[in-house]
Amino acid sequence: MQPSSDSGNFAPAAAQAEFWQRYVEDFRKAGHEAVDWIAKYLSELSDCPVVPSMKPGGLVDALPASGPVQGESFDAILADFNRLIMPAVTQWNHPRFFAYFACTGSTPAILGEMLAAALNTNGLHWKTSPAVAELEQVTLGWLRQWMGLADDWFGIIYDTASTSSMHAIACAREMATPEARVNGSHPNLTLYTSAQSHSSIEKGAIAVGMGQANVRKVPVDAEFRMRAGALAALVEQDVAAGLRPCCVVATVGTTSTTSIDPVPQIAAIAEKHNMWLHVDAAYAGPAAIVPEHRYIFDGVERAHSLVVNPHKWLLTPIDLSAFYTRRPDILRRAFSLVPEYLHPQQDPRAHDLMDYGVPLGHRFRALKLWYVLRYFGQEGIQQMLRSHIAMAKKFAALVDSGPEFERVAPVPLSVVCFRYKGTDDENKAIIESVNATGRVFLSHTMLNGQVVIRLAIGNLATTWEDVMEVWTLVKDAVKSKISNFKF
Ligand code: PLP
Known about the structure:
Order of helices and strands: HHHHHEHHEHEHEHEEHEHHEEHEEHH
Mean pLDDT: 95
CATH topology of the domain at 122-363: Aspartate Aminotransferase, domain 2
Helix content: 40-55%
CATH superfamily of the domain at 122-363: Type I PLP-dependent aspartate aminotransferase-like (Major domain)
CATH architecture of the domain at 122-363: 3-Layer(aba) Sandwich
Bound molecules: pyridoxal-5'-phosphate
Strand content: 5-15%
CATH class of the domain at 122-363: Alpha Beta
Largest sheet: 7 strands, mixed
Strand order of the largest sheet: 1-7-6-5-4-2-3
Oligomer: single chain
Number of strands: 11
Distance between the termini: 55 Å
């Protein structure tokens, strides 16, 4: 769709106004249809397969190799979305998506995201959009209070936990070696994180130039928590060798088992050696909103930074990662570099978000989080978190009750790690055959050198019947294993 123009260059005002009117009306009609489409999708999702059955390249081959020369109608685009795109979508919103960290996009967040896209406002600088800077401060403040953190934490939204943790590691480098900003990373800086921590921590060390060889993977105990004694020994050893320990990353809710590192003991070691302590609570953080699970944040008040991902377990569609630090001065020192055309704000209440990280541009992500926090409220969120944790514990009890399966890790939150008491190949075959039904989606992990089945509960729509379906399918897979499994 485009305005008609006599000159071939630009349209006269009347033609432009007429075009704009048609353009907006076209959107109004298609927008209503899109919202109807979303409502139907959400109400019928449970009947769809969770994982698409397609071969790699299937969508690329089905779409034209080059873009359309003439614009197309919304009807044509939506028809192809239904026909071609949807069959290639893995349904992360599905109530029986139990893989990785199951999550939930929610209707208020969809509306918040739509309004943010409509505004297309860029909060790089306070003045380029005061709403972006100030709503981010407000929503992260609410979330901080709900998680029981004091008000000396500064919050900023990045895209993912990987980006948040990379910024934490850059702060650690800045605190230890301020000259690194100019001269590049000091070759002797070392970072410590558990053998169960997320790969994003090692990637962060790569990104800031600390180097993979300087990342120490601290051994874990029988419950997959960092061994504080082993951390202390590794740090002492490195100090004795003339290295410069500068960062510890503790995980509250590890990716495989949701184990919780002993943050108070780790904090004591970090304090003794003047190291930056970052806490990766990307998945588990929201559980601190529930009073009886607040203990997961014991010791976090002593950390320098913390990441919590509302796009994992807080009803917010990807992407939205909340990064908190008690040392915004160091974050700013590490990253502020103001181009001439953007004068810094003089008012202390006006934050220029571009000063607190790599990106200049800043999406209005806070709007969808604001919608979520207001729509569900603290109690609604607590109710969802409690129900996921209760279902996980009930499933764990089922696993424990039979002779054929074993549980391989404690269940503090909403993930159950278990295995059939057979070979690794048999466990892999169980996951494959259960997923092939299209009814559920499970993923695996490796613990103590063995393949383990992982059930992660995190979707707002998930019921106990959905969880029971997993149990039935897993048991059916075991029953038919002798005749059908192909190893
Ligand atoms: N930290 C933990 C504990 C995770 O489990 C994950 C991903 O599952 C990440 C970090 C990375 O998250 P993101 O995809 O937001 O970078």
